[in-house]
Amino acid sequence: MNESLFINIIIGISIASTPLIFAAIGELLVERSGVLNLGVEGMMIVGALLGFIVQFHTGNPFLAVVAALLGGMAISSIFAFLTQFLLTNQVATGLALTLFGLGFSAFAGRGYTEETIVLIKAVDIPVLSDIPFIGPLLFSMNPLVYLAFLMVYLVWWFLFRTKQGLILRSIGDNHDAAHAIGHNVVRYRFMAILFGGAMAGVGGAFLSLVQVPIWGEDMTAGRGWIALGLVVFASWQPFRIILGAILFGGITVLQLHAQGFDIRISAQYLSMLPYLATIIILVSLRIRLKNKTNRTVPNCLGRIFHSTS
Amino acid sequence: MSKGRFSSILKLSVLSTVLAFTSNVSADPVKAAFVYIGPTGDHGWTYAHDEGVKYAKEKLGDDVIMTTIENVAENSDSERVITSLARKNDIVFTTSFGYMNPTVKVAKRYPDVKFEHATGYMLEDNVSVYSARFYEGRHVIGKIAGRMTESNVIGYIASFPIPEVIRGINSAFLAAKSVNPDVQIKIVWVYSWYDPGKEADAANALIAQGADVLMQHTDSTAAMTVAEEKGIHAFGQASNMREWGPNAQLTGIINDWGPYYADRIAAVRDGTWSSSDTFAGVQQGMVKFAPMNNNMPTDVKNEAMKAIIDLSMGAIHPFTGPINKQDGSPWLAEGETPPNFPDLLTMDFYVEGIDSQYPN
After folding, report:
1. Is the residue at A43 inside a domain?
2. What is the pLDDT of residues A176-197, one digit of tens each?
3. For A100-250, where are the E strands, in sequence order?
4. ipTM of predicted complex
């Protein structure tokens, strides 16, 4: 295999993984706070549409990304309001959010299916990108790819190195206890959900701003669900999101390349692998949970918090 | 899939309101329904069907009431959608190969309703099948691709290994090979009709592996945008995709379903509809081409135009023997052309010379 092809494959994998990293790291924080938001797909597609629309009208990639971020946040606020104030069932509300996001974006995006935009291009970091092999591999990526990695680090730092992160985790583990010692459970969860929405929005916009310069109804094509699986795969540990996203995204890209080389591994079996891995991890988590050695699954995940005082 | 359900409900309710209004105006319009696999905004397969529907509506005016449902997945969901449409319509068009079994199943329960299934091969008294000889279009673009490639590698983004897609691959390869003996075809299956992200990934993978002309049998414009960005060539699929690849698009195969839809619905109106098996191509105008772009030399353009003329006169057949199957066993003898059934309609093999293994 020659060098440029190798670099090309790595870039392909990074492009396929980045939307998953964004969406999953957002959802990870949400789940760490004890909330299960199944609306990732819906938030992503709204981000994809808004990013596209703003890029189309302004041509300003920064504004486009911000629009996607705000769009994801706005739609997640519906979920936050319903689940945190009206105490609706999180699973049902999340599913409804996905349906709403897909339907809404299909409707609102009708006028944009015939349009095309200028993609957000990769940037060469001066000097560093000139290093042979390593340069094009590490220092000529799309800015949003770097941002995705940065977000993973920031989420880890927030969760494990700040007081607020500790409070958020404690809320996820035992909201009654956290409430009893005076923490505002609803406020923390509301903020976490908004952050999750913002990240999903940017993840979706990556598809329509970096991967393909078109808007297409349903273009997230199930990536929101993969992101949800990824959080479990990562067993709620931020850095494992990167590993999982590379595995999930990488398999897609690698099997396309394998086909081109006529290496015959069944595409269906390959596509199954990440999900199989997720199931195995789920089972092992369950076993560790039984033996009380597990400390990662947020105990209050999906449970409704009803303050009695 | 779930969204398909959502938008179908939305549309049905809107349409039933429309229905209530229009039924007062016209005496007894034909109620025709269409089931789509993707969104009409894909600018490919579904878009082309929807253009056909618009054409038929324009032609028949108040004689017809159209109902269209997008994004119907090819699973049990489709049977439910087809059933609900059969209850309220005189004729139901199901526009994807995967709807074949549910269409036939529902047709048996609703013997008074007419069904039209695209690209399949199961006929019933109240089920017609219709398909276009897209492989004739592939013949033309295959010739262009064979001439235009400098790397001698044509990239082919394929959806699912069904006869229609296999015919396209074989036809394109034979045509390319006829003008360029060194040509090679790299085939990547994405196992989706519509996933812009994955189609773009596939296009990138093929380009990285040396392809400098892309063909696609998927529905979105994603591959065309990649070709444009990478400065290589590609062909529009199902509709003119020039807008997404002004420099990349050489020409495009255009599916023109409009006249067929108008005819069939008119036949229901006139009471002359009977089950039929239509397999029309360039000659009947069901397969058309986007304008030849100026990014190819005149002789290539002329050669393509000649192929189109020959096809429209029925003077050539893209599958003319001698042709062997991939394993070297003979398929067509010298000068022989294949019958529609079973050879063309159930095609499940690559022709000799294609390197890739046949997908299982």
Report:
1. yes
2. 999 999 999 999 999 999 999 9
3. none
4. 0.88
